[in-house]
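Write out this protein's structure.
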Amino acid sequence: MILNRYEQMIARRYLLPGKGEGFIFLVAAISLAAVALGVAALIIVMSVMNGFRAELFDKIVGLNGHAIVQGYEGRLSDWQRIASAARATPGVISALPLIEQPLMASANGRVEGILVRGMRPEDLRANKIINSNVKSGSMATITPGSGKVAIGSQLAQALGAYPGSEISLISPEGRDTPVGSVPRIVTYTVGAIFEVGVYDYDKAYVVMPMEDAQTLLMMGDQVGMIEIQVSDPDKVGDTLASLNSVVRGKGIVVDWRQMNSALFSALEVERIAMFVVLSLIVVVAVFNILSSLIMLVRAKTRDIAILRTMGASRAAMMKIFVTVGVTIGTLGIFAGVILGAIFLYFRQGVVDAIQAMTGQNLWDPSVRVLADLPSKTDPVEVTAIVVTAIILSFLATLYPAWKAASTDPVQVLRYD
């Protein structure tokens, strides 16, 4: 919208408080602040929700792959042939054998439920999720036959374990005796403690070499599953469709959407619901712009009439008041983007400060799943929020601008 010099001058004049117009200016300032808060709230919440999904996806996939071939009864024979067939499938990046078995762990008189994870040494060394999050000890000590394992940080805390301490793993599949089956108990040394940032994993995982896991669970040369990584996670079902015939009768193929369908579906529903609810803040702010412009038009009725008698057109009046309203909205949007960026940058510090002031644990990893408040800002999403807010601000200006343009100078100035 192009304004000439006098239209720009009048628009600037109406943006600043005149004599006796402090209340109108206050309403306009409140409108600007409301737009800023609405835009900031949308950007913050959507970024946090995106961060939740991205962080969970990266860490879940980093430990469990995009799909697994799960053997019946937790055992997969002839896994070498299945792994080779998976690697030969177009779109598959890797296919790694794994063992995962729920057991019990005991240390210092404490007992916890765990998930034993057996990995080949080369696969364990290549796993960035685990190796980049070692808190103490060294993953280099976790070698076949060493009797050492790596455990999650929350499990270490629950058991009172540390690098060098011993933990006993209890398997229900033990040896048979005349009085029944006796659980198998094997003692290992803690070689490393890791923290991937997902509470459920840090509370349960005990990672050991594949050979040690096969010995502990008396599986021979069998494995429990094959972890598969694909090039396009969103098309994992189509990519692995041909693999179903290879594993038929031996196991099933389960992708990341099936393994975590409830979690990701809940996040998506919550994301949409939060967007709709917080968008109402922007709508309310836009109504404030509408009301402030209506008040401004009423206060400037005589000025508008004089301008009309001096030759100002209806279109000029429309442009002036549309410019005033859109300027208020744009300044609020700009402030909201800055406010949202600042909050997201200091988000964890803000959470910690609120926890310190209230004495409440607002971010319990056992409830929130992740150890820290995540964030991932989508530029396309931010652009959509900004454009939507600008459009709403523009629409809010049309009625007051039309009323200003419809002012009849004869009626207004008749008795002046």
